[in-house]
Amino acid sequence: MNAIITFMEETELDIPALFGKNVQKYRKMAGLTQSELSKRLEITQKHLSIIETGTQFASANLIARISKELNVAPAALQQAFRRNK
């Protein structure tokens, strides 16, 4: 049982931070600034900033809108990649 607990602790991810980094990565790949994407999403730039920093997690509705604007699957925004820096 200790091995299972250790494995779970080692593999836990900060999902909001991971999501935010992925949003930022795909936003930059799309050639968009925070200001441009936030206007398309009809949210403030500050709201997008706090999502990208992992301070706040996006709602399911907003995840769908971000996914659509960045042309990526919602699951891709939550995937952990080793080269995600």
What features would you describe in this structure?
With 85 residues, the chain is mostly helical. The protein has helices spanning 2-11, 15-29, 34-41, 45-52, 60-70. Helix 3 packs across helix 4. It starts with a helix and ends in a 15-residue tail after the last helix. Mean pLDDT is 86; it is low at 1-10.
Please tag this protein with its features.
85 residues; mainly alpha; 5 helices; globular
Sequence-ordered SSE layout with sheet pairings:
Blueprint: H1 2-11, H2 15-29, H3 34-41, H4 45-52, H5 60-70
What is the gyration radius calculated from CA atoms? 14 Å
Order of helices and strands: HHHHH
Strand content: under 5%
Helix residue percentage? 55-70%
Global outline: globular
How would you sum up the major sheet?
A: none
Indicate the mean pLDDT.
86
For the record, give the distance between the C-alpha atoms at the N and C termini, rounded to a whole number: 33 Å
Q: Could you name the ranges where pLDDT drops below 50 across 5 or more consecutive residues? A: 1-10
Structural class: mainly alpha
State the assembly state of the protein chains: single chain
Number of strands: 0
Provide a compact summary of the structure:
With 85 residues, the chain is mostly helical. Helices cover 61% and strands 0% of the residues.
